[in-house]
Amino acid sequence: MRGFVGVLQADAYAGYDKIFEDGRIIEAACSAHCRRKFHEIHERQEHVVGTLAHQALQRIGALYALEQRIRGHGAEQRLLHRQRHAKPLLAQLHDWLGESLSQLSSKSPLATAIGYALGNWRALNVYVEDRRIEIDNNTAERALRGVVLGRKNYLHFGSDSGGSRAAIIYSLVGTCKLNGIDPYAYLRHVLVHIADHPINRVAELLPWAVAGELSTPALKHEAGSLKPSCLWQNGVTMNDTELIEALSNASSLELYELSRIIDWLLADPRRIVAIRSQLNIGKSVQFMDWRSGQMRAGKVVAMKDAQATVQDDASRTQWKLSYAAIDPGAGPESIEAQSTSLPQPQVQKPGPQDFRRGDRVSFTDKYLQPQIGTITRNNQRAASVEREGCTGWRVPFGMLAHVMDI
Question: CB atoms < 10 A from the CB of 224, how many?
Answer without folding.
Answer: 9
